[in-house]
Design goal:
single chain; mainly alpha; 4 helices; flat
């Protein structure tokens, strides 16, 4: 396999033609969400140890770390920032519309 120096091709294009899906990150994302939910909904340990806030903060830090990695990987794969922002807007817009309809905003 020969990697070209053509700037119109990203690293992932030259290797496989599409950005890979990191299946292991799906599990880590699920773990981070479960940590946040557990920190907010379950009594964890004695109150003086403040385990709830520590568990929730760990889950949040893990989630944001994964998000940063995936956003960086996506921008390295396809470095067009306007296209990336448009895709993100349309992905978030559906959830926001559903939430607005359900809460009568």
């Amino acid at each position: 396999m020969k990697l070209t120096s053509n700037p119109s091709f990203g690293y992932w294009d030259q290797i496989s033609g599409k950005m890979p899906h990191f299946k292991a990150l799906d599990g880590w994302r699920g773990i981070s969400i479960l940590l946040v939910l557990a920190g907010h909904l379950l009594p964890l340990g004695p109150p003086r140890f403040q385990m709830n806030s520590a568990v929730a903060a760990s889950g949040m830090a893990l989630f944001f770390t994964l998000s940063g990695f995936l956003i960086t990987s996506t921008l390295l794969y396809e470095p067009s920032v306007p296209q990336f922002l448009i895709r993100r807007l349309f992905r978030v817009e559906d959830g926001c519309s559903i939430c607005a309809c359900c809460t009568d905003l």
